[in-house]
Amino acid sequence: MQALNLILENQTLFIICCALFGLMVGSFLNVVIYRLPVMLEREWKRESAEALSQSDADNTDDEAFNLVTPRSRCSKCQSPIHAWQNIPVISFLLLGGKCSNCKTAISWRYPLVELITAVLTAIVAWHFFPSSYAALAAIGLTWALIALTGIDYDTYLLPDNITLPLVWLGLIANYFGLITSFESAFWGAIAGYMSLWSIFWLFKLITGKEGMGYGDFKLLAALGAWLGWEMLPVIIILSSLVGAVVGIALMVFANHEKTKPIPFGPYLATAGWIAMIWGAELHNMYLNYAGLS
């Protein structure tokens, strides 16, 4: 108990401990990013089979597959990954970025997600110290945003399994005033959802096409529930600017097809995290620029 109090009262220790824990969580987030979409796809297949009255024999996904089972293994040779090979960042360096069995290259994405998670966790811990409860809540939001970013980038999917609980958790956290007032969080959730929902239908009525997915509505609702309605203009402007810059860069330098969609979730998540840390300064800058302050 004394050790815990020492960590909570000492800023340097608090940041270091949060960063180390974030490094370990980053390894788990890699699992979530890869496995959760597969789990959802299998669930949808089972539901479709039941709706079509197909027999269980038609279901080829009988092997247990979740965030724990089966054990992590090489995607090529299927050799199990042992505990010492699963230490965040360190194992990647010790293995030289290759599978110990077949020497297939391991993606740099795995240690990158771990490092990003550790760094962002440390920044959040620094920003909210000494309010440990607010820091822990914001760290949880950060981890969820990292997972959503990876999943949406890979699959164009923002799972309800993450976005909907985020809305409720944001409202609960701000019932205790951890980040903003409950009133601001309540209206933030409503305005976050309705703003993108309105843009979606306006765009569809004009063009006949869908410009974004419903997951984007829910993610912005979650960010509104966590950060309050005042941060929504900042988040929308930031995400749109970053999305436009990245989209143009992809088309110019990476020959990205104009007809191929670009996921908006990562830009919303990035803008939401920036607003959580520097939102007050950006909000004041926005009001000054708009002549409203």
Tally of helical runs: 10
Question: Percentage of helical residues?
Answer: 55-70%
Count the beta strands. Answer: 0
What structural class should be given to the helix and strand makeup?
Answer: mainly alpha
- Write down the Rg: 21 Å
Distance between the termini: 47 Å
| Spans of at least 5 consecutive residues with low confidence | none
Outline: globular
Main pleated sheet: none
Q: Secondary-structure element sequence?
A: HHHHHHHHHH
Mean pLDDT: 87
Strand content: under 5%
What can be said about this structure in brief?
With 293 residues, the chain is mainly α. Helix content is 69%, strand content 0%. The radius of gyration is 21 Å and the shape is globular.
General description of the model:
By secondary structure, the chain is mainly alpha-helical. It has 10 helices and no strands. Helix 4 runs antiparallel to helix 5, helix 5 packs antiparallel against helix 6 and helix 5 packs across helix 10. The longest helix has 41 residues. It is globular. The mean pLDDT is 87.
Keywords:
single chain; 293 residues; 10 helices
Give the SSE map:
Blueprint: H1 2-9, H2 11-51, H3 90-94, H4 109-128, H5 132-155, H6 160-175, H7 182-207, H8 214-227, H9 232-253, H10 265-290
